[in-house]
Amino acid sequence: MKSFQEFLTEEKVLKQSRDLAEARSLMQQAWDRSNDLSSLPVDISNAQFRFESAYECLREALQSFLSFEGYKAYSHEAIVIFSLEKKILSEAQAVKIDRYRTIRNDINYRGKKITLEEATEILHLVKSLLPLLRKILEEKLSKK
To answer: Are 106 and 112 in contact (CB under 8 A)?
Structure first.
């Protein structure tokens, strides 16, 4: 994996002013999307759509930390690396989310069909990880 600094050098991430409102908004959007997603059925006919929505929950939540720190990412991979380097995610979580990023790209750009198990797996991660990410961001915002 590249370092976050490499993404900055390649201008796939830009430094900007901290945007606390955007950080809050992105986390809230992830939370709302997750709540909506949890009310929907999951079966093989909609697995890829549920997967994409679950991935978006994770991406939005992690993007909120970049907004908090004053970065704008134009790469989903950079978001994962930032979260790992800042210890927002463990290495195991980062590897898993990066794998989901690749699967999501395969769905979007190559029309890949996924299994019900893959969709269920990411949905479980969202359900367990999103409350923790929200708590971490709220703690950071309260200290600002």
So the answer is: yes
CA atoms in the 13 A half-sphere facing the CB of 40: 18
Domain range 4-143, its CATH number among 3.40.30.10, 3.30.470.30, 1.10.10.10, 1.20.120.330: 1.20.120.330
Residue with tokens 């019900």: 116
pLDDT in tens, 15-66: 999 999 999 999 999 999 999 999 999 999 999 999 999 999 999 999 999 9
C-alpha distances (whole Å) from 108 to each of 13, 40, 42, 118 are 22, 21, 19, 15
**One-letter amino acid for residue 78 of the chain:** A
Per-residue pLDDT band at 86 (split at 50, 70, 90): very high
Hey, what are 85's tokens? 């380097």
Please say whether the beta carbons of 65 and 23 come within 8 A: yes
